[in-house]
Amino acid sequence: MRRNEGPYAANLEEIRAELLRLGAPAAAIDPAAVKLMQPQAHERPFSKEGWIFELKYDGFRVLAAGGAGEARLRYRNGVDAARVFPELVRAVAALPVSGLILDGEAVVLDETGRPSFRRLQRRGMRTRAVDAERAALAAPAAFIAFDLLGLADLDLRPLPLAVRKSTLRRVLPDEGPILYADEVAERGEDFYAAVAGMGLEGVVAKRAQSSYRAGYSADWLKVRVDRTADFAVIGFNPSRSGFRKLHLAVRGDGGWIYAGTVGTGFDREEKAEIAARLPVGRVGTRGPVWIEPELVVEVRYKEWTAGGHLRHPVFLRVREDKRVEECRRFEE
């Protein structure tokens, strides 16, 4: 999360002229129409010339747009995130460059400077304006910017990632909650080993010459330290504490595919928060209570069994930033 050498070190008109010479289309981007680029899952770390490696941040994917007094934030599922992160809205609006489209992660850091998803998740539940402002003081968020899609009515998506990132570094200020996402060139295996040693989530490998394209791409690859995936909650077994276990599914071409259950990994607060979002189930009911898939949870597991169920699943977190339709087996 290194900062740039100096705030707005190069003249913005010079930057814009450079980008036009490199082939950036002179076209303003509608942030609401942007479809995010997504990394495909990759089994093992690797080192390779022409690739850069970034930390996989434990946060909410957010598209930030604005600058010069304007700011819009939205999650990857299109839901407005501005009301949850008023401090990030102010930070984006304070950037003196207009037409910025930043791709990145909203995170809340703990005392050691590491992203804490549990703290971030609590922030995500504070949607009333007064509660969000209080939460911003108690657990302020940061925005880790790893890509720049637009600048001053230019569309940078056709340009190579290396150009987009170098431009991003030049336009971010030295101070404030908007941070530049550092990268390591070529040495992916060493970087992965360091990330694993610190107990962090994983790395994202990106082809330095790749353009920005909507959807999943082999030009971006995520390598997790643990195997995890997102699942839709389609049922639960009720108990006096709310539920004993959740029933999970992934989306297939023909509908929902059952993936088994998860009953461990919840702390008391998480269990109470999830139970409050489930319909009331009669304690002692035999079998599960089936519900419409609306809630997404991330689960760590060892592998898929031959029967298509998760082996040794452990609950990690609720994913407020994802839609149930995104819960697919290929995201493993």
As residue ranges, the low-confidence spans are: 1-7
Whole-number average pLDDT? 90
Task: Kindly name the structural category.
Answer: alpha+beta
Number of strands: 19
Walkthrough of the structure:
A hairpin with a 7-residue loop joins strand 12 and strand 13. The chain has about 325 residues and is an alpha+beta fold. The strands form four sheets. Strands 3, 4, 5, 6, 7 and 8 form a six-stranded mixed beta sheet that branches. Strands 12, 13, 14, 15, 16 and 19 form a six-stranded antiparallel beta sheet that branches. The chain has seven helices and 19 strands. The chain starts with 11 loop residues before the first helix and ends in a 14-residue tail after the last strand.
